[in-house]
Amino acid sequence: MKIISWNINGLRAIMKKGALVDFLTETKPDIVCLQEIKISVAKLVQENIALPGYSLFGNGAKREGYSGTALVIKDSLLKNIKNFSIKNGIGIDAFDHEGRIQILELDKFYLLNIYFPNANHELSRLSYKEKFNEAILRYCQKLEQKKPVVITGDFNVAHQPIDLARPKENEGNAGYTKEERFWFDEFLSAGLIDTFRFLHGDKVQYSWWSFRMTARARNIGWRIDYFLVSSKIKPSLKKAYILDKITGSDHCPVGLELN
């Protein structure tokens, strides 16, 4: 099974560019987890966005043009899933109203598509993000009592110095605070595996670049998009990768393949 995660920085924008349809046609993933779709569910229905061969399940924020997630699932896969359900949110309105969380139940595991909050430049949302992380970890631990979990999305944090081009200059900045990195450690301490790091060791590769100062052309980036999996899934890990040649957003897609 091939699963892709991609913060697209606006569904309308990437559809106009044709980047998403081209990507689906060329790579043929089974599931794509999208973050920051910036469109409400009502507008999704109204605009009838078409992705040939795939079905789209949106989770928009109450605030139009902000945040939001979506699952894009291959129609042929949908026909073969016995235990299929999609849940938007974790039952906590303080987090759910921004459309940040989707839980897809598959036959053998849960797939969580998450757009983690940005702490903001002034760290004004750092406390909110810490509470969000805690709630997500607790929720995943409950799910793991039934089935393993795969957590993917834009975590908005670089875990280690190797995960960003300029760690010293960014120490204490949003996305590289000790608090955010602590919570990533907590996910790993709970038994979850950072699949890219597990399979590729100290390989340096990034998934996000600022639009400023030609950062992407100079590869001054951050690795903030991840696939974390329960330890029970470790034997099924086939590939984990970052598709940093794919454009269309300030993020590039990241992928996971399971046997």
TrEMBL record:
Site note Important for catalytic activity, residues: 225
Iron keyword on record: no
Swiss-Prot/TrEMBL GO biological process terms: base-excision repair
Keywords associated with the record: Hydrolase, Magnesium, Manganese, Metal-binding
Catalytic residues identified in the record: 115, 154, 251
CDD domains in the cross-refs: Ape1-like_AP-endo
UniProt-listed Gene3D superfamilies: Endonuclease/exonuclease/phosphatase (3.60.10.10)
GO molecular function, one term: phosphoric diester hydrolase activity
UniProt-annotated site: Transition state stabilizer, residues: 156
Protein family: Belongs to the DNA repair enzymes AP/ExoA family.
Protein name listed in UniProt: Exodeoxyribonuclease III
Gene assigned in the entry: xth
